[in-house]
From TrEMBL:
Gene3D superfamilies: alpha/beta hydrolase
Family of the protein in this entry: Belongs to the type-B carboxylesterase/lipase family.
Enzyme class: hydrolase
Carboxylesterase type B domain span: 84-422
Signal sequence coordinates: 1-20
Keywords: Hydrolase, Signal
This enzyme's EC code(s): 3.1.1.-
Protein name: Carboxylic ester hydrolase
Protein origin, superkingdom: Eukaryota
PANTHER family recorded: CARBOXYLIC ESTER HYDROLASE
């Protein structure tokens, strides 16, 4: 009997299945009411939660600069600028840049900076500015840690002040004459496991797509990691209640509805699209009722249906672990707000390295991210789609990215994985299907490192789930059919 057959027999013996009254604007949209209704207890224009008198009592004086920082609108004030189009938005004038392939408006603010007392609060509408806003260069990406093999692709600058979007417009659009037929709009939500990525990543340069499809392309930033998804309690006034990254996306989509017409776009023809965590975000907007009016159709690229959203209980437990790493009490919101961005990132990474339940192993691929809060997100995405609790009237395009599993497996396992370890991980992921998976794949691999086998198994099942919309049980039957 070969070694792999012995291991298969041992697994068969030991494995047990696991259960698994506000005035509307001239567009008919009430921006304040829209965001306020998501969390009705929170007034978006309320006084700061941390008052001036309380700032003196913050734990670390060096952190006051973070708490007190204000938004720099980067206004161009009489300095020489390259030629570029100028548009008049609801908040003020914006000047873009015209390059070889497109007109581009970089770093357009769609919400006020979520800094200081607003670190863990829903996004607030943009404050108007005077003068001309300089949109000729990208702004900093949202806070994230860059490490591993993909560090070369990391943003050069990161900041908590990051709620911006980039707009790409076909070069043949003439801003000096009326546009008889507005262009369709495509809004890109980037991936990155909800802890990384950027709207300004070179891979997401929207110039080619804008010209090739003759559309207005919008790339948006949203808060990531603990900044976007920390849950420390249930009171939105005195705790972090999570899902801020998804609320940021909603605020950006609302901004598009209100402003994209002056950029040549048609707000009634908005397609949202994304890959991986971006596709997961798209799937959530398809089931979130308050997002319904913000887009017409959707494209999902490599939707990770098999990765479950956290429950409120799991999100709170993660928040408690995060607070421990910062030496703050989870109930001491002032202490959490006083943390430097670097301290937040450090605690985020330390918390992410913990696997709480080995039989819910897929959670290691998305430690930080959206959770089921009962208000914005009411159920698991895969459950909502199976029950028909989504916007079925909208056109939907679903696809998968080949070999995507390589990024995740080699990102999680930075050292070779032995055959025994591989079997343990497969059992944790595939549960009662483990024997069928091992019988199909294990004899094919004789290398000492079994990471490649893990990527192939994961990619095969994910492909069926994503491209055919199959539940995980049915997808496994397609990939590993029962013996006849």
């Amino acid at each position: 009997m070969e070694n792999w057959q012995c291991l298969l027999l041992l697994t068969a013996i030991t494995l047990r299945p696991c259960s698994g009254a506000v005035t509307k604007n001239d567009d008919g949209i009430d921006p304040f009411g829209f965001l306020r209704n998501i969390y009705s207890a929170l007034l978006l224009r309320d006084e700061p939660f941390v008052r001036d008198s309380e700032l003196k009592e913050l734990r670390r004086p060096a952190d006051l600069a973070v708490i007190q920082q204000t938004k720099d609108k980067a206004l161009s004030q009489g300095r020489e600028e390259a030629d570029g189009p100028v548009v008049f938005t609801k908040n003020g004038q914006i000047k873009g840049v015209t390059v070889d392939k497109a007109h581009i408006f970089y770093g357009v603010p769609y919400a006020d900076p979520p800094v200081g007392a607003y670190r863990w609060k829903p996004p607030r509408p943009v404050s108007p500015w005077s003068g001309v806003y300089d949109a000729s260069f990208p702004r900093a990406a949202c806070m994230q840690v860059c490490s591993g093999s993909s560090s070369a692709e990391c943003p050069k600058k990161v900041s908590e002040d990051c709620l911006y979007l980039n707009i790409f417009i076909p070069l043949d659009l003439n801003f000096t004459s009326p546009l008889w037929r507005p262009l369709p709009v495509m809004v890109w939500i980037h991936g990155g496991d909800f802890i990384a990525g950027s709207a300004s990543k070179p891979m997401y340069d929207g110039r080619f797509l804008s010209n090739f499809t003759h559309t207005v392309v919008v790339n948006l930033e949203y808060r990531l990691g603990a900044f976007g998804f920390l849950v420390s309690g249930t009171d939105p006034l005195s705790t972090a209640t999570g899902n801020y990254g998804i609320l940021d996306q909603q605020a950006a989509l609302l901004w598009v509805q209100q402003n994209i017409a002056v950029f040549g776009g048609d707000p009634s023809k908005v397609t949202i699209f994304g890959e991986s965590a971006g596709a997961q975000s798209v799937s959530l907007h398809l089931m979130i009722q308050s997002s319904k009016s913000l887009f017409k159709q959707a494209v999902l690229q490599s939707l990770p249906f098999s990765i479950p959203l956290k429950t409120r209980h799991d999100a709170l437990r993660l928040g408690k672990d995060f607070a421990k790493e910062t030496n703050c009490s989870v109930s001491d919101f002032i202490c959490l707000l006083s943390l430097t961005p670097q301290a937040v990132l450090s605690a985020q990474m330390k918390t992410r390295s913990k696997i709480v339940n080995p039989f819910r192993f897929l959670e290691v691929f998305e430690t930080w991210g959206p959770h089921i809060d009962g208000e914005l997100i009411k159920e698991q995405a895969i459950t909502a789609f199976q029950k028909g609790n989504w916007q079925k009237e909208k056109a939907l395009l679903l696809g998968t990215t080949s070999e995507e599993g390589v990024l995740f497996v080699y990102g999680v396992f930075n050292k070779p994985v032995s055959v025994v370890e591989a079997i343990m991980y497969i059992a944790a992921i595939f549960k009662q299907h483990t024997l069928r998976i091992l019988h199909k794949y294990l004899p094919l691999y004789r290398e000492a490192d079994f990471r490649h086998m893990l990527t192939q198994e994961g990619s095969a099942v994910e492909s069926q789930i994503k491209t055919k919309g199959l539940p995980e049980e049915e997808a496994l039957t397609v990939i590993v059919p029962e013996e006849s």
